[in-house]
Design a protein that fits this description.
10 helices; 2 domains; Arc Repressor Mutant, subunit A; homodimer; DNA-binding; elongated; Tetracycline Repressor, domain 2; mainly alpha
DNA sequence: ATACGATTCAAACAGTCGTCTGAACCAGCC
DNA sequence: GGCTGGTTCAGACGACTGTTTGAATCGTAT
């Protein structure tokens, strides 16, 4: 029970500061003074600034992704042999990460800002982290969505899932609350419900590849 | 004709580097060596790093917002007394900024990454920039969307517009291409069409405030 | 009590940061 | 010619960066 306190205090402080000022905009000295620990403690526990980012990221994302898979399994099991319900699949993807916003009281806002920001940092470290953490998730959810939406091509599902991720991460950053304080943003369960409604309707839109003048492509409708 | 070359070379180099490494992750020395100018030239022409960011941002966003308003005017004029077409309103909002991706050949990708990144930087400078540049735009488009979607409350339209902005900016960053190179992302006109299809269907979803068990709120339907 | 591994500490390393200075340069005008 | 205002230059300012060191400290098992 010697280290974990220091180690977690560092991670939490880094999470706070990264979410406020970004990775490059946060110095290790900021982190240590926020955490109330010595500067060398970071090097001792993590070795490098990149490794600290990795620790901050994985601490939160791993349970999120685990829960995502659980919920997806449940949705697929509930559907039996038929395709799972679209709303259930989207909720399995969105709910665990949005829940963090309320589950970890106080830290929730911090974390959601952090993850939203991560999604738009093209740093090499972040890229590798995303690849490691999301490859399996994406494959599983793509497969489920293909079953839900047999009229859509695979490429189009990928694209719409990207739009969904964009809407989600932007909602997590919650920039809009700072720009338009008149319209308070929904949180927790409300935000989740609104996002699912929004994206489910969007996914069900006819194929944009053949929107106006052609029939929807038939591809994969017989597979 | 003495300065503009240096000044624009600085802005372009800064745009490139900001989009690649972020604002905090880019040093002024990186900018000057990329632009092939002296370090003090930045101080001479812009005064400060924040002011440089401001110049980079406004150079591109002002014509975009101008075009947005033009297209919105056209959509409203085409509809006469009736509410403008939802797709036309969304296209007016999305098209000008997506067009940049192909209009400025080569620089397009750079700029779109930059703007996508900006949307998730909670820096104070960025916040003020956004407020300055987007307040009028948002008010105009909110008003138009309220006319298109009388069954939705104002707060809900604001929220869905935020989801739309999220999907747009994430598509501009185009992180997904780096994570999933197997599925090449659409560009230009295709991306625009897909986004409009996606978001139009999403906006038309019944109110999430009363999705399953209540009737949609009536608010603003008579105003 | 003593020794040991784990942890924390103050201090410094070589670079880089944004900003600023004062001299050099270069046009065009007297 | 000389002069002026706008522009560029090399160089430096102090502050801050990520990383590293070696000694000091801690709890624990011997």
């Amino acid at each position: 029970m010697s280290t974990p306190d220091t180690k977690n205090r560092i991670i939490s402080a880094a999470e706070t500061l990264f979410s406020q000022h970004g990775f490059a905009g946060t110095s290790l000295r900021n982190v240590t003074s926020e955490a109330g620990v010595n500067l060398a403690a970071i090097h001792y526990h993590f070795g490098t600034k990149d490794a600290l980012l990795r620790a901050v990221f994985t601490r939160r994302i791993e349970p999120v992704n685990q829960r995502r898979l659980e919920m997806l399994d449940a949705a697929e099991a509930a559907a039996g042999d038929r395709a799972p319900e679209l709303e259930a699949v989207l909720e399995a993807f969105l709910s665990p990460i949005i829940d963090l916003k309320r589950d970890i009281e106080g830290e929730g806002i911090v974390w959601s800002r952090f993850i939203g920001r991560i999604y738009s940092e093209p740093t090499e470290v972040v890229e590798n982290l995303m690849r490691e953490q999301f490859d399996e998730i994406l494959q599983r959810f793509l497969h489920a969505l293909e079953r839900c939406l047999p009229d859509l091509g695979e490429a189009e599902i990928v694209e719409r899932l990207q739009f969904t991720i964009g809407a989600m991460s932007h909602a997590l950053v919650d920039l809009h609350q700072r720009l338009m304080p008149d319209y308070p943003s929904a949180t927790g369960a409300d935000l989740l419900q609104h996002l699912v409604t929004f994206t489910a309707a969007a996914f069900r839109a006819p194929s944009a590849y053949a929107c106006q003048d052609r029939h929807p492509e038939r591809r994969a409708s017989a597979s």
